[in-house]
Design a protein that fits this description.
two-stranded parallel sheet; 18% strand; 31% helix; 2 helices
C-alpha cells in the first residue's frame, strides 16, 4: 500500500505542509510507503478543453466532436 499526500498550499513552509509532513512521518513509522507532492513546486496549467488536447496531439483531431 502507498499513501499519496497532495498539498495545494502556496506556502512551502506553511502549516499545511508541516501538518502533512507530520502525518506522513507517523504513517511511515508503520511501514507504509508514502509520497508527498507539493503543487507549489510544480507548474500546473488549467485545462482549456479539447482544443488544448488537439493542439498538443494533432492526431486526436479526428477523435473530437465537429465543434472543436
Amino acid at each position: 500500500m502507498k499513501i499519496l499526500a497532495i498539498s495545494g498550499s502556496p506556502k512551502n513552509k506553511g502549516n499545511t505542509n508541516y501538518l502533512v509532513g507530520q502525518a506522513l512521518e507517523k504513517i511511515t513509522k508503520r511501514a507504509i510507503d508514502t509520497e508527498k507532492i507539493v503543487l507549489s513546486q510544480h507548474q500546473v496549467n488549467p485545462y482549456l478543453g479539447m482544443t488544448d488536447v488537439v493542439h498538443i496531439n494533432p492526431a486526436l483531431r479526428k477523435m473530437t466532436p465537429a465543434g472543436y
